[in-house]
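Tutorial handout. Part one gives the primary structure; part two gives the three-dimensional structure as tokens.
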Amino acid sequence: MNDDIFVKVIDIDLERRRISLSLKQANDSSDAQAVEEFDPYLYGMAPAFDEAGGYIGPEGFDPETGEWKAEFEDQRAQWEKEYSEAHSRWEAHRKQIDEARNADQAAALEAGQNVSSYSSESNDGEGALASDEALQALRDKLAGE
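Part two.
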């Protein structure tokens, strides 16, 4: 309650005034590298690129030298603040992903223990709560690898 979470926007339906969001897809990002490597533009910073895709940087920044120009201290301070906030969001998103993975693994283990206590056969990895690793292990086992 009162926690910030990261979600992926799936759809925006203007006619019905609805927005579809997905927590699972935010945690299972198809661009896993984006979550592993910090990209400030994915976490709230305004893009600083021209129409051709070349990096132009914020006002007062010289992309050729990689240095801030003199007399742009306020812009630099603002950019550094935005960058820091974006990095904090990225760290919070990584924490959310790790917590979700741990919860999924705990639920899969619990489900596996409950299933085996009611059956003579081991059904570890079955059900909607199974983790990706458990499903891959089951596939490998069935394929004889």
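Part three, for discussion. The first helix runs from residue 23 to 27. The chain has four helices and four strands.
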